[in-house]
Task: inverse folding
């Protein structure tokens, strides 16, 4: 009898198919914003922001448009998203922030803008690395590393809420 129950359970599980993870809910407009950021389409991104798209929407990998724009070094897109209210310290599925992604890509102007916009240089990704750790992989005299060192030293002890 237990064998029969076991076989029925196996058949039911097999018929159900593999488990699927559910993507975060988003409207077509907000998903288009993620696509525009992925494609580096500044004009489309601005158009969608003006139409009311949420700048903090995330794709299936939990990457926000700001993370995507920072990774590409697109200062124009980063500025537009921050001005529209994007969270500068958003962490994706790997806990990478826009600042970490800009640092990995060695995008100095984007790193500087994010620091001035209030990005926290002390946040770590899922491997425990800060933006400075990635910059130091290029050498201690790297321009981004120097900028991040100054930001860490001069950062406020607590963020204003």
Result:
């Amino acid at each position: 009898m237990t064998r029969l129950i076991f076989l029925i359970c196996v058949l039911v599980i097999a018929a159900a198919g593999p488990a699927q993870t559910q993507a975060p809910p988003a409207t077509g407009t907000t998903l288009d914003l993620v696509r525009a950021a992925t494609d580096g389409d500044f004009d489309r991104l601005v158009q969608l922001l003006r139409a009311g798209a949420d700048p903090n929407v995330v794709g299936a990998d939990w990457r926000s448009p700001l993370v995507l724009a920072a990774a590409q070094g697109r200062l124009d897109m980063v500025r537009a998203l921050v001005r529209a209210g994007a969270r500068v310290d958003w962490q994706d599925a790997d806990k990478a922030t826009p600042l970490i992604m800009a640092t990995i890509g060695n995008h100095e102007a984007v790193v500087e803008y994010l620091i001035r916009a209030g990005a926290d240089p002390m946040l770590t990704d899922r491997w425990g690395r800060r933006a400075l750790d990635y910059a130091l992989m290029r050498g201690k005299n790297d321009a981004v590393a120097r900028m991040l060192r100054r930001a860490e030293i001069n950062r406020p002890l607590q963020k204003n809420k």
